[in-house]
Amino acid sequence: MDRLQAMQVFTRVVDTNSFSRAADTLNLPRASVTTIIQNLEAHLNVRLLQRTTRRLNLTPDGAAYYERCVRILADIEEAEGSFSNNGKGPHGKLRVDMPGAIGRLIVMPQLCEFHTRYPEIELMLGFGDKPVDLIQEGVDCVIRVGTLQDSSLVARRIGVFQGVTVASPQYLERNGTPKSIDDLQNHSAVNYFSSRTGRIMDMDFVVDDETIEVKMRGMVAVNDAEAYLSCGLKGVGIIQVPRFMALPHLRAGELVEVLPQWNPLPMPISAVYPHNRHLSPKVRVFVDWAAELFERCPLLQGQKDAEERCLPTSTPSPTIVRHGTPEVAGTEDIVA
């Protein structure tokens, strides 16, 4: 029995809570995963997992063995990675998920640079605004926007989203331009609801260092970023989007900033990964590279006036951000 492979299979079964998902992420037949776990239990002469028709549970022995396996595998990966400068460097598949706009506008234009630095890393990039479960779906790292609260994951802050409140010229011509936050009660918004909770996300504004949430009426609510921006451009109502995504439309006159004296609450951008990936050389170099990309873009470091550098030349589709509840690639509301 290959004990190292058995440890890898066992930890993946625990992480994904499924023999089938573990098999998929390891590119192994499900029968092989089952056999490896059975052989491992026989070798150790203990039961590691309690199997039911609905879920898997660790036995006390299984929990203790799992913790040791995670440390051993991390040590092995760190040891191998320490020789990366003498060999071919970080290598293997790296699965990363991120909001579509960040992927298309920030990451994709610079991919050649990453592959020049790390030619042995095969990137699998997923773009979308819906949450993913890193462990169960076998994702190594995600880029997320918003307040983070899940201690089971590690997060590194790499940037800041500064939002902007905008409406189309057609909407403002029909309804007038709000001059104060109170005036919003006489206006309509395009509402955005969480795909996870179904809750409408209120607009928010920072006034005298305090955040004020504003519940607005609206004729339509959506949970898709492109539909949200499209509704705003067509004059359906007022919207709040990240400034760097709205900027091409502001420059083209397709959107107009309203209430510029009160900005939405800035939201952190983080690279997030499971604890058992924190020593992985390929994850580490990707996160370092992503941090570099955001550092080059002042508008993604919260610098509102630095709008001429690192901006898309094409019209983006947005990532929706609302007061502490991000709609981004990955499970919502997590932290290190």
Automatic annotation (TrEMBL):
Tell me where in this chain the HTH lysR-type domain is found.
1-59
The residues the entry assigns to the signal sequence are none
Q: Does the keyword Transcription regulation apply?
A: yes
Chain residue ranges for the region called Disordered = 309-336
- Does this UniProt record's set of keywords contain DNA-binding? yes
**Origin, by domain of life?**
Bacteria
- Tell me which SUPFAM superfamilies the record gives: Periplasmic binding protein-like II, Winged helix' DNA-binding domain
GO BP terms, alphabetized:
DNA-templated transcription
Which GO MF terms are attached to this record? Answer: DNA-binding transcription factor activity; sequence-specific DNA binding
Give one Pfam hit by family name: LysR_substrate
Going by the UniProt record, its keywords in alphabetical order are: DNA-binding, Transcription, Transcription regulation
Q: Which InterPro entries match?
A: LysR-type_TF_proteobact-type (IPR058163), LysR_HTH_N (IPR000847), LysR_subst-bd (IPR005119), WH-like_DNA-bd_sf (IPR036388), WH_DNA-bd_sf (IPR036390)
Q: Which PROSITE patterns match?
A: HTH_LYSR (PS50931)
The family this protein is said to belong to: Belongs to the LysR transcriptional regulatory family.
Q: What's the protein name?
A: LysR family transcriptional regulator
Q: Which organism is it from?
A: Caballeronia fortuita
